[in-house]
Amino acid sequence: MPTLKRKIINGLKFLLEIIWDGIIVILFVIVIRSYIIAPFQIHGPSMCDTFNNLNGQCIRGNGEYIMVYKLGYQNIGGWQIGIPKRGDIVVFQPPNGIGDEFFIKRVIGLPGETIEIKEGYVYINTKRLDESSYLNKSNLGHTDTQKNETIFVIPQGQYFVLGDNRRASSDSRRCFDQIGCTTNNTPFVPLANLQGKAFIVLWPFNQIRLSKEVDYTLSSK
Question: What is the per-residue pLDDT across 80-90, written as a single tens digit (0 to 9) for each?
Answer without folding.
Answer: 667 899 999 99
